[in-house]
Amino acid sequence: MNELTEIGEFGLIDLIKQDTIHDHGTVVVGIGDDAAVLLPTPRQLQLLTTDMLVESIHFDLTMTTPWQLGYKAIAVNLSDIAAMGGTPRHAVISVALPATTPTEFIINLYQGMKEICREHSVNIVGGDTVSSPQGLVINVTVAGEVEPANLVKRSGAKTGDIIAVTGVLGNSAAGLDLLSVGEWEEYDFAWPLVTAHLTPRPQVKAGTILAAAGATSMDDLSDGLASESHEIAEASNVGIRLYAAQIPLSAELKQAAEKLDKQALDYALYGGEDFQLLFTMEPSNYEMLLADHPDLQLVRIGEIVETSQGVTLVDEEGGVQILEAKGYNHFR
Amino acid sequence: MNELTEIGEFGLIDLIKQDTIHDHGTVVVGIGDDAAVLLPTPRQLQLLTTDMLVESIHFDLTMTTPWQLGYKAIAVNLSDIAAMGGTPRHAVISVALPATTPTEFIINLYQGMKEICREHSVNIVGGDTVSSPQGLVINVTVAGEVEPANLVKRSGAKTGDIIAVTGVLGNSAAGLDLLSVGEWEEYDFAWPLVTAHLTPRPQVKAGTILAAAGATSMDDLSDGLASESHEIAEASNVGIRLYAAQIPLSAELKQAAEKLDKQALDYALYGGEDFQLLFTMEPSNYEMLLADHPDLQLVRIGEIVETSQGVTLVDEEGGVQILEAKGYNHFR
């Protein structure tokens, strides 16, 4: 099998260049010049987000295929654009590769990236390929756009708003635990959890619908529900009351938690990388949204309260506990 | 001294956030939400470029201060924007840091980044800080803008155009050699060369002037004159004839080359990271440009010829040799 040292940087760029442009009308110059040249949509705001994934910190090549890793490296950035109510448009990708990386590994890595970019009509318009003395590093930057009226920040939550999520929580963190323990393949419940961890689906379409429906604040659940609730509470200067009984947990998560001798709810609260959206909205708007979009898997999990009430969790017996900001820490 | 493990990701973000916005009118949301939100200039094209620097591949912490490294990590991206005729606007910065990195190192790294961003009114609007199991990795993405009429690609050079550069070449590569050999501090000639290597000055202002003056193609000299000449020749489907006697070499470079037992011209041709601009232009436009901008250090080094003539170098005795595309390889 060819190794990277044989094909070099230019050979690699030729491999990467194929099938990178899905929305030709917005790309004046793609890969191959000093910078990409892009045509913005008039009267939209520009969004910019970046994420770095480091081998043995953020991923383990014994647990993920290169295709899955490529898919996820893009997904985490699309999720950030979704959380602003925006639409992702263009990606630039930097990869530091050990010199012994097989060419096939690189092709599969980019295939995963290209697949999710195709799903979301995101163009890959540039990047940097460099060598790494040890370990793979991937950095993706995604540029997106949002209508000024649809921009949703973290800071707009108001007392009386509902707080809701776009789907089940905790699957990804439980999937990571299953991958770490190993021998998960024999359990049917494990597959959706492992899949949620390895190839998360960013809620881009839901994000634009929520924004248009009047979401007052929004965040993606990259760091877990507890941590992200605190982000919204702090940015919006409000308190948040969550109800444990309403937090959506999958049947598979419950089975896995039992197997792993863990609490399913803890995965939802303190696990991370679910990439569902957490949002707040006036109750009347939320009712209209539910009526208009039965296709979305929205679940109301609590409400916005006065700042002085802090961020709390009401347990199934009605007891109230303070919810700590601890959660998944990207800075491990 | 505090280490990174003590202050954590959020402490680090607080350190980084200060003094990041220089052009307040264009930033709706900077560091701190899921994505940056930016106000584009109407009727301009958007530019996007990214570069990754990996410790022990692209830099050696025994040869550079963290301040210089931060400065350079931004500079290389601004140079790419300059080479399109554009103006850099916003940067997002990812850094993977070993857990034992002293806080002071990180502060100095960002001070260097902030200094060059201040010089060019570039806003730092986001980023990602993660831990690294080994070695520092920095990825910078810069978004810029260009008037459609001023966009300069690599592909527009025409037979009969002159080809010119914005300043002396080879200083950076000679500076790197001096740093590698060591004990350069005693030589007066070494300082400008080492400085050219460690804190290169991107030619942003020159780039916009050249674009407005009608540059037909442009490239920054990140990989050396030979390699970049081939880039323009290939993209534009032309030949290029360069004159060795006209390539601008500094007196310091000549002294260093003698000391290092190397050819000064080789540094200009095959060294890299000068970050001067290489451009082509109709002769009449070039004459006007020279008259209008005596402040620029422009030097004509050759002309564009038919494709069939290839890329050649005319030596000081009038002999013609084929110029190979070899040069500085970022993919080391």
Automatic annotation (TrEMBL), chains A, B:
Residues annotated to bind substrate: H58, E273, Y328
Domain of life of the source: Bacteria
Domain PurM-like N-terminal per the UniProt entry, residue ranges: 32-146
Molecular function GO labels: thiamine-phosphate kinase activity
Record-listed E.C. numbers: 2.7.4.16
Primary enzyme class: transferase
Record's catalysed reaction(s): thiamine phosphate + ATP = thiamine diphosphate + ADP
UniProt entry tagged with the keyword Signal: no
Binding site for ATP: Y110, G127, D128, R154, S222
Binding site for Mg(2+) 3: D34, D80, D220
CDD domains in the cross-refs: ThiL (cd02194)
Keyword annotations of the record: ATP-binding, Kinase, Magnesium, Metal-binding, Nucleotide-binding, Thiamine biosynthesis, Transferase
Positions that bind Mg(2+) 1: T50, D51, D128
Domain spans labelled PurM-like C-terminal: 158-309
InterPro entries documented for this protein: PurM-like_C_dom (IPR010918), PurM-like_C_sf (IPR036676), PurM-like_N (IPR016188), PurM-like_N_sf (IPR036921), ThiL-like (IPR006283)
Residues that coordinate or bind Mg(2+) 5: D223
Function: Catalyzes the ATP-dependent phosphorylation of thiamine-monophosphate (TMP) to form thiamine-pyrophosphate (TPP), the active form of vitamin B1.
Similarity annotation: Belongs to the thiamine-monophosphate kinase family.
Additional notes on this entry: Reaction mechanism of ThiL seems to utilize a direct, inline transfer of the gamma-phosphate of ATP to TMP rather than a phosphorylated enzyme intermediate.
Protein name as annotated: Thiamine-monophosphate kinase
Organism: Sporomusa acidovorans (strain ATCC 49682 / DSM 3132 / Mol)
Lineage: Bacteria, Bacillati, Bacillota, Negativicutes, Selenomonadales
Name of the gene encoding the protein in the UniProt record: thiL
